[in-house]
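Question (not urgent): is this output format expected?
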Amino acid sequence: MNHQLFYKELGRLLYAIAAADGTIAKAEVERLHRIVAQELVPAEPATDKYGTDQAWITEFEFDVLADQGADPNGEFRSFIAYLRQHRKEVTSELRDTVLGMARSVAGAFHGINSAEAPLLAELERELDDLVARR
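Got this back:
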């Protein structure tokens, strides 16, 4: 698995979830930072040529998309396309990790709202389908 690309796409997914309702709450950004710092960074041994952990790409991508006001639906579709292209790498563990992170960001500000729920449901269906076909 190309970890740089995975983390970039994960940033797109988490941005799409956070921005689904048209705004990104401070609590969602804080949750993203906590996920990257406490879950992704400790689990990722790879660093770039400056010694920066590859997992920080997730947060960087999220921030860039937020600054650009990117279309959440387009970013969500990008992540789904990435999953489909890398279907053989989608394990049950990866499914649980990605879904847990997406739910965590969605629930960070007053719980999962009506704009985020359909994206989470589609993500879960897609992940379940890919794991079942493995």
